[in-house]
Amino acid sequence: MRRWNESAGAGSVQGTLPPEEVSVTRLAAVPPMGWNSWDVFGTSVTEAETRANAEFIAEHMAEHGWEYVVVDIQWYDPAARAGGYNSGTKLVLDEYGLPQPAPNRFPSAAGGAGFKPLADYVHSLGLKFGLHILRGVPRQAVAADTPIKGSEYSAAQIPDRERLSSWVDDNWGIDHSHPGGQAYYDSLARQFADWGVDYVKADDMIAPYWEDEVEAFWHAIDRVDRDILLSLSPGMNLSTAHAEHLKAHSHLWRVSADLWDRWRDINAQFDLLREWAPHAGPGHWPDADMLPLGRMGVRAEVGEPRESLLTPDEQRTMLTLWCIARSPLMVGADLPNSSAETIELLTNPEVLAAQRHPAGSREVWREGKLVAWASEDGAFAALFNRGPEPAEIQVPWAVLGTARPGRIRDCWGRTDLVPGDALRVKLQPHGSALFRLS
């Protein structure tokens, strides 16, 4: 990455913050927005599918802030399939034990080109390219004792066979008491930078919380001569006690397990985001996971090909909560085959403005299944009905942190409302409303 002093403009004050702190906050000044292949194609996404979704984003969504195109797990498995992970499969690795895109799925990667041709194409559309990587070193590289590029070490020197993933057996964990562990991650990060990667989703990092793995991977990403956003996954049972460490060693981190198109998954995020929202800010964003919207499940881990099973009200509630809480937005749909209603939902500029708003936000009121959030500067307010019956909510302006506004804007309806002595709204089951106050 470019160091802070090198990118400081004329007249700027240099040396006020440590370079590492600035390198975290300089990127991801607002929560990132993009597309991820997992919800629709699982482990088996192809280059053609990635390009088609990138082209759709460039044509229909980029002007609204959608910019990342992320290939999820096992892009190095030629035999990847729907419905889960292959066990003991032969991966595509180079002579240094570094994963390479499977050419039968990513034809432009043939001949050792890696992801550079695909990344170049995504960049030509004005977008940014990302990929998934699993914690650790490939077991296949350890068995072959491949040299670690740029070092005197080899793969057989660095595995920690006790630090296993509970859900996929591609890798061993890494023993970071050995300098070869950092050297391997350094070589991986250099490869990503050479390919033109802009975003890395590093998985199996924080459930359980592997502090040394997080630090080693962050240092590897931080050393390359390219700006790369680092996202950590998953987030089951993640304690806010790790918040300061996460802020210093990542740009975004998951706060839950994988989220699917089920109301119980959306509903669980209310409590999680209430805890994590105070830790959101430039360069460090708690992540409520992907948006299971539109056409999904074509070859996914969970479910058959389908339109999202969330009701229209539940879909709006998910987006309202993610935006008021300023979570990253990563949609998991096959966008070219999704409905116009889905795309309209994802490109409402008045709703997305809440996610890009510079002021923080908090849950400010809760009564049973009824919830209110507000931004700290009083600019946005969101009301939610988590219950199974219609409900009317009335929240005093003072609770929302503002005086009676001169104007209320319904962000979903895109209409102006006359303010009363409180913010009142009738909501359907699992429904929500988002307002801009002025």
From TrEMBL:
<dbReference type="InterPro" id="IPR013780">
    <property type="entry name" value="Glyco_hydro_b"/>
</dbReference>
<protein>
    <recommendedName>
        <fullName>Alpha-galactosidase</fullName>
        <ecNumber>3.2.1.22</ecNumber>
    </recommendedName>
</protein>
<feature type="domain" description="Alpha galactosidase C-terminal">
    <location>
        <begin position="376"/>
        <end position="437"/>
    </location>
</feature>
<dbReference type="Pfam" id="PF16499">
    <property type="entry name" value="Melibiase_2"/>
</dbReference>
<keyword id="KW-0378">Hydrolase</keyword>
<dbReference type="InterPro" id="IPR002241">
    <property type="entry name" value="Glyco_hydro_27"/>
</dbReference>
<comment type="similarity">
    <text>Belongs to the glycosyl hydrolase 27 family.</text>
</comment>
<dbReference type="InterPro" id="IPR041233">
    <property type="entry name" value="Melibiase_C"/>
</dbReference>
<dbReference type="GO" id="GO:0005975">
    <property type="term" value="P:carbohydrate metabolic process"/>
</dbReference>
<dbReference type="Pfam" id="PF17801">
    <property type="entry name" value="Melibiase_C"/>
</dbReference>
<dbReference type="InterPro" id="IPR017853">
    <property type="entry name" value="GH"/>
</dbReference>
<dbReference type="GO" id="GO:0004557">
    <property type="term" value="F:alpha-galactosidase activity"/>
</dbReference>
<dbReference type="InterPro" id="IPR013785">
    <property type="entry name" value="Aldolase_TIM"/>
</dbReference>
<keyword id="KW-1015">Disulfide bond</keyword>
<keyword id="KW-0326">Glycosidase</keyword>
<keyword id="KW-0732">Signal</keyword>
